[in-house]
Design brief:
This protein is mainly β and 260 residues long. The chain is 2% helix and 53% strand. It is globular. The relative contact order is 0.21.
Length: 260
Amino acid sequence: MAVVSSITRMGTIEPWDLQVGRGQISMHQYVFQFGQAATVTTNQSVWATTGVYAFPASATVMKISSGSANDTSAGSGARTVRIVGLDANYNVISEVVALNGQTAVNTVNSYLRINDFYVLTAGSGNTAAGIIYAGTGTVTTGVPATIYSLMPVAYNAQTQAIYTVPVGYTAYVSSYTFSSNNATANTICSGFLYVYLYGNNFPTIEASARFNGGNTFDRHFDYPLAFAEKTDLDMHVSSSNSGQMTGEMHILLIKNDSQG
């Protein structure tokens, strides 16, 4: 049977961004990083819990667990998840983990960073039954003492606008968006793109946003912001009234030229 494909499969006239999305441009990869914070007041990272995100100090085995006993290899909830991150040398690593409800399952790999975390297969419920975590330390009713990633119920994927550039690549941020669902009068919201350069324990703020609650702020850069390998990107938000806020980044990841 003949392969069904568009007439422009080889990318001769299709838009360049579509060619990247289809994997036709070698050494280029599109990354979309989305996060949601439920009850924002003071400055915090855009992720599904409170506070400023703390990156692991060293590569470590992650404990994968759920707040629900139904998220298990034979349960009605999530059965397996995929974790994607970076090893001690910032190389991309990933694996599939079979869940065991509230009992933690150790990863095979040691992760210095987690860039993606999502449900791969599920039972009859077709979704995770509880919050699924990746973390370290003592696990109590499915919740690890230190959380590095989590999937809110029904999302089936992590919701954190946090990303680390793999070794051998440069990340180009072409745009970002912040939004708030808080329509309380006179609510002022702020968003920031925090950047941790490799070797620094302190961030720099590369871009910011200020807007009224209940609205969205979009910024598109005429010239994308370039970030070198091993750089940590962490979107932050704050609000004068408690409410839900989101953040997202559009990233083009380009492999660096080989140095001969």
